[in-house]
Amino acid sequence: MAALTPPAPVVYGEGSRPPRGDYARDGLVLADYTCPQNYAAYTAQDHDTYRQLFDRQSALVPGLACDEFIAALPLLGVKDRIPRFEEINARLTPATGWEVVAVPGLIPEVPFFTLLANRKFPVTDWIRTPEEMDYIVEPDVFHDLFGHVPLLFNPVFAAHMQAYGAGGLKAHGLGACEQLSRLYWYTIEFGLVRQADGLRAYGAGILSSSGELQHSVRSPEPQRLALDVTRCMRTRYKIDSYQQTYFVIDSFQQLFDLTAPDFTPLYAQVQTLGELAADARNAGDTLVSLA
Ligand SMILES: C[C@H](O)[C@H](O)[C@H]1CNc2nc(N)[nH]c(=O)c2N1
Ligand SMILES: N[C@@H](Cc1ccccc1)C(=O)O
Ligand SMILES: [Fe+2]
After folding, report:
1. 29 neighbors 18 (Cβ within 8 angstroms)
2. In the predicted model, what is the mean pLDDT of residues 149-172?
3. How many CB atoms are closer than 10 A to CB 17?
4. Which of 22, 72, 106, 264 could be cross-linked to 153 through a Cys-Cys bond (beta carbons 3.0 to 4.6 Å apart)?
5. Does some domain include residue 15?
6. Which residues contact 146 (CB under 8 A, 6 or more apart)?
7. Closest ligand to 229 CA?
8. Atom of ligand 1 nearest to the CA of 164
């Protein structure tokens, strides 16, 4: 797929101007919450935390992470210290037009989706403390770089992520952010893909987790459903435990195709059908077995 030319930067209207982070750039005021990666602020302990996380997690991925992720992981470059984002962009931008940009943490939906729509992936520029090695509440630089960035080297997934940005801004306008965030959660963060040689993880929340990678692909405990967009958008999720339900795709092209149609009628259908618990069993679900 030819590298898509990123659209012109988005200029915020007054209403969506964020409380901080207004940057004047090339004459445009781009209030997008991004900040330069504060590389000097990282301590030796921070770099060592990244190295330990990278070594532990990359040893776990064979047989559990999808092939595209394993193929792209080396493109993150250095693994004995936190990479400079421009080191990654030197490879990523020529590959799919994506650019990693630093943000101070979780940012509001509109700036987040606007960045995605412009092929800019927001990467948190701090790293967890050694005490948080096994669990963090918010995404840190390791979750974002290790979990999210490798698949941005894949042209189909890269195009899908940009479509998410535009879709997110549309959902915001329709008041459907909650529904769309469930789809994001169960695909981009916790999605599974069925390969010829079995189930594998592609969701960043799984790929960057030492415990959930094995659980999601091997445990008989959770249910696994073939991805149905409406079913997925009805399904609540928990942020502080392993998923009780995983949604499974057959390929990134299928994911791209399933999410291409206009979601407006689906958002209405989700409202009518109502929400489902994270572990709900529902008639019409297509179960995916472990074998
Ligand atoms: C879209 C997703 O569901 C969630 O709402 C957004 C909000 N803001 C974010 N901000 C950052 N920095 N990183 C993220 O992953 C997200 N996720
Ligand atoms: N096709 C969706 C937008 C979208 C694209 C890709 C991923 C998620 C959402 C819509 O019309 O709202
Ligand atoms: Fe994430």
Report:
1. no
2. 97
3. 12
4. 72
5. no
6. 53, 54, 57, 73, 76, 207, 208
7. 2
8. 1
Which-ligand-closest: CA of 120? 1
At which residue do the structure tokens 């037009």 appear? 97
- Cα 172 to ligand 1 centre (Å): 13
Q: How confident is the model at residue 32 (pLDDT cuts 50, 70, 90)?
A: confident
Q: Does residue 68 sit within a domain?
A: yes
d(C-alpha 257, C-alpha 188), whole Å: 15
- What distance in angstroms lies between residue 246's CA and the mean position of ligand 3's atoms? 16
What kind and span of H or E run contains 245?
strand 245-249
Range in 2-16, 86-100, 123-137 with the lowest mean pLDDT? 2-16
> In angstroms, rounded to a whole number, what is the distance separating the alpha carbons of residues 227 and 159?
19
Closest C-alpha residue for ligand 1 atom 3: 181
Cα-based distances in Å from 117 to 8, 20, 265:
10, 21, 22
The beta strands (E) that lie in 2-131 are given as 22-25, 28-31, 99-103, 120-124
pLDDT tens, 74-103?
999 999 999 999 999 999 999 999 999 998
Gap from CA of 283 to ligand 3 centroid (Å): 30
263 in ligand 2 pocket by Cβ < 6 Å? yes
Quick: pLDDT tens for 217-256.
999 999 999 999 999 999 999 998 999 999 999 999 999 9
Q: Would residue 118 count as lying in a domain?
A: yes
Looking at the structure of the chain, the number of domains it has is 1
pLDDT of residue 31: 55
Residue 231 resides in a domain? yes
Residue 85's domain comprises 25-273
Domain of residue 158, CATH code: 1.10.800.10
Beta strands 245-249 and 192-195 are parallel
3-state secondary structure string across 189-231: HCCEEEECCEEEECCHHHHCCCCHHHHHHHCCCCEEEECCHHH
- Catalytic residue set: 143, 148, 189, 208
